[in-house]
Here is the input.
Amino acid sequence: MKIAVCVKQVPDSWAEKTMANGLLDRAGVDAVLNDLDEYAVEEALRIVEAHGGNGEGGAHSITVISMGPDRATDAVRKALSMGADSAVIVTDSALSGSDALATSKVLASVIASRGFDLVICGTESTDARMSVVPAMLAQRLGWASLTFAGATEVNPEQSTVMITRDTEVGREKIAAKLPAVISVIEKINDPRYPSFKGIMAAKKKSMEVINLESTGITSESVGSSGAWSIVEDAQLRPPRGAGIKVVDEGDAGNQLVGFLAERKLI
Amino acid sequence: MSDVFVLAQFTDGIATNTTIELATYGARIGSVTAVILAAPGAGAALAAQLTSGPIAHVIVVENADFARYGVSATSDALGQLVAQHRPSALLISSSAFGKEVAGCVAVIIDSGIITDAVDVSADLIATQIIFGGSTTVHSRISHGCSIITLRPNSVTADITSSKPDVNFVELAIADNAKKAETLSVEPPVKGGRPDLTQANVIISGGRGTSGDFSGVEALADLLGAAVGASRAATDAGWYPHSLQVGQTGKTVSPQLYVACGISGAIQHRAGMQTSKTIVVINKDPEAPIFEIADFGVVGDLFNVLPQACEAVRARRA
Here is the structure.
């Protein structure tokens, strides 16, 4: 079974983020592997480990796929040191400013041309937070979409996948034939820390860097020029004014309710 | 006058307030058509629900595939309807389901998409509040139908009565949209509290509750509020993950958010910072959540909450 895990390099979620020319300013902030993608890498590892493993002698393989600036290699390297086998990075100056539509188009093209059975994603990136790329990927590939999984069951022999997820309507069980795209929530597992051995091994793993042209997608349909949503303006919001702060001396509960009444909230 | 489609949604057969909010936005832009995607035989009763809000027309599609194939079937049907009727905008509630549907429809009909908007103007400029509440962005869609998902509780719903015409439409769902099948749904245990993402008032508990949510729940029930929890509380198993507020949980924007024993990590703030009024109870005067509090109490929630409940009862007596 060939598994692809899509990962993104994002600004550290603790960093202060700002806009520059209508885009997230990525230059001045630390870039890390999107937290939520670590769960996708871990889930891929657990799936193959339950069915004979990956790497040399294993029946399965895990390929990390990422799109981003050159330094996206750092995030990819982390995924490799956790245990993925190889990586494909699409990097091209034309991709800067790509929206979710363009991102899904590029990822789908790489996945379709290399042939995979299963794609695993995190539920969202901690920077853009749209959480639509996994569903868009499945839509573009014409594959089954099983998102927000809290548990997965993959059967490589039967070519099937089933997930369990909790939504507004309740606990759902969803099943499909492979190939499929799944996204996993952060409750699904505890991602492993890369071991020293894993970190050393990752240095020798194949990391293929390709440009946009080799995906067969034209530069007009991606990046800022190809984005179908245009930022008109972005402004820093005034910080919330410092409110009232009281130290409880026995009647703070009453004061609190007094405040709510004043604001007509009760 | 241009047409706007809104995806109508229902909970236990009742139209969600968000549906009326979407129609309220839609009416700024043009004539509103509400789309109901229902199980066979269920459409007429749902259409009869849409008697308030500025809704001019209702399109009902009945098909068993919507329940079986979820997002994919819903997107396929909406894609067909939008391709046929060419509305200027498609407005959908910004839930996990709504955002995925919007994303798939955008792929199907080759249109731009904006998610998590908190406002949309008559000329289709959407407002989003991003980066954990620090930045306001205005943007518009430059290609195809303006597909925009809007967060619940962001506008005062226009509840003027309406009597839309209702049209039943037959659609076949494409085979491509039938690849992931819902085998079973186990309904959540209803606590009788409002849905977290739709609630006007939310009382949330965190690490400081030490797992005892009784005070949080008592105030919530007194105020008809939903109960939320921080990641620390859900990770500890004190409260269900489905009620987690924050970056990896639900994003909420109620009129009133009361954070009890929550320190206010940036991941939590990202999920609640756009609440209209924020009240905080925390023992630690240095807790970062105080930075965004309209009213903060430095104190023990086990003393403050019972007194607050008593004070609410006294005011009502």
